[in-house]
Amino acid sequence: MKKLVTILLTTAFVFSSLPKAKLNAMPKDKKLHLEAGILISGASFFIGPQLEKLVFDKPQIHPMLWGVGMSTLAGAGKELIYDKALGRGTPELEDFYYTFIGGIGTSFALGILYEGLGFGSRDDYESINLNVNPKTKNFSLSYKFNFSL
After folding, report:
1. 86 located within any domain
2. What 3-state class would DSSP assign to 92?
3. N or C: which end of the chain has fewer CB within 10 A?
4. What is the C-alpha to C-alpha distance for residues 120 and 59, in angstroms, rounded to an integer?
5. CA-to-CA distance for 76 and 69, rounded, in angstroms?
6. 131 falls within a domain
7. Which of 56, 57, 93 is nearest to 75 (CA)?
8. Residue 80 pLDDT > 90, yes or no?
9. How far from each other are the two terminal CA atoms of the chain, in whole angstroms?
10. Into how many domains does the chain fold?
11. Does residue 132 form part of some domain?
12. 11 belongs to a structural domain
């Protein structure tokens, strides 16, 4: 529990120390979408694997994928269902992007802290690799999982 509190406090510090001028220049609506992505991703990162343990007796999906997946679904669902289909708002692709960026940023930060502090179990998954090539402006994310019945 002590390590979990350390992870959460470190993540909160990182996001609270972002340059204030850039955050103040961001429209309030976009801030809310970014914050929603952060909260959904952070909660899914910890809750998703626990739900899997209840259903399947062991986690099968890496927590980072839970965080990114749930924040992406929430952002897309809000824009497509709530705003567009129900007509209760204005659907904007940029709103979806802000929710997604909040989710992916939080998932990667928590994933690095989670594995760095020794919470990650190598029995549950094999590896996650992020390769970035600044010259070609390409990046790839590969996820390798060993699963046997």
Report:
1. yes
2. coil
3. C
4. 11
5. 11
6. no
7. 93
8. yes
9. 31
10. 1
11. no
12. yes
